[in-house]
């Protein structure tokens, strides 16, 4: 069991960023995800695992059958600045996506992206292993929310494919922006997980351009209709009783 962390610079910067934007301007699900990951990093709840216990790797999931890593690895961060940059990015993307989808569908999307980016990460590890015969690819362990963030960015760019984004003072068509960022981060940040970021882009495309994403939307929409229908029936019965 790990000890609770002290408040660090990245957490202070994150708090300042939220106060600057105004917490009331951040949708509830997005704000909740930021709060949850901050609490996990601070170990407020004294979680019964360490970072090494939940980092995602092909060996850990396939050979050891440690399936909790498919989800928990995304919510752990290596240090305070890792958390800060990811949460600032989450706020930016979450404010847009949650506004489009609503909080319920947005949370369903986050769960889908979390699980599938982990699965794609494992698949990419095996592909690289079969190409290079480098067994270390199967044991590389990764943590963080960046794969999910790359998936979110990909989804947003597919919603506005003709828009342009400025990256390093270069105007890039939105549809190509995730790929451009993938290369830039790979070149500038050697320790960043290339497979993780690539898996995020691929999962984002899976959601927007394949029947898997359409099927997810259909199921979530039907569930929301059932919930809304039951709520309306309950309200009708209460009105009759009154």
Task: Tell me briefly what this model is.
The protein has helices at residues 9-21, 28-42, 51-54, 58-63, 69-72, 80-101, 103-132, 136-139, 146-159, 177-188, 194-209, 211-241, and strands at residues 164-167, 170-173.
Secondary-structure class? mainly alpha
Distance between the termini: 54 Å
DSSP, total strands = 2
Which architecture would the CATH scheme give at its second level? Up-down Bundle
Main β-sheet description: 2 strands, antiparallel
- Helix % is over 70%
GO molecular function, one term: serine-type endopeptidase activity
Pfam families: Rhomboid
Transmembrane segments: 106-131, 137-156, 168-189
InterPro entries: Peptidase_S54_rhomboid_dom, Rhomboid-like_sf
């Amino acid at each position: 069991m790990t000890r609770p962390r002290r408040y660090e610079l990245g957490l202070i910067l994150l708090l300042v960023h939220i106060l600057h934007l105004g917490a009331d301007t951040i949708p509830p699900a997005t704000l909740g995800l930021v709060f949850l990951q901050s609490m996990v990093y601070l170990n407020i709840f004294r979680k019964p695992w360490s970072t090494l216990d939940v980092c995602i790797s092909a060996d850990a999931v396939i050979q050891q059958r440690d399936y909790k890593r498919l989800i928990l690895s995304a919510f752990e961060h290596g240090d305070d600045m890792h958390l800060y940059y990811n949460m600032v990015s989450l706020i930016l993307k979450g404010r847009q996506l949650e506004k489009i989808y609503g909080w319920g569908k947005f949370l369903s999307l986050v769960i889908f992206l979390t699980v599938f980016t982990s699965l794609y990460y494992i698949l990419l590890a095996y592909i690289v292993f079969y190409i290079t015969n480098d067994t270390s690819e199967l044991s590389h362990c990764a943590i963080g929310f960046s794969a999910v963030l790359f998936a979110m960015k990909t989804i947003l760019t597919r919603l506005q494919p003709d828009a342009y984004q400025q990256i390093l003072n270069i105007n890039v068509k939105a549809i190509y922006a995730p790929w451009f960022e993938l290369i830039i981060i790979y070149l500038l940040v050697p320790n960043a997980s290339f497979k993780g970021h690539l898996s995020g882009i691929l999962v984002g495309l899976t959601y927007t351009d394949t029947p898997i994403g359409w099927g997810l939307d259909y199921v979530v929409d039907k569930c929301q209709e059932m919930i809304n229908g039951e709520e309306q029936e309950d309200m009708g019965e209460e009105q009759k009783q009154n």
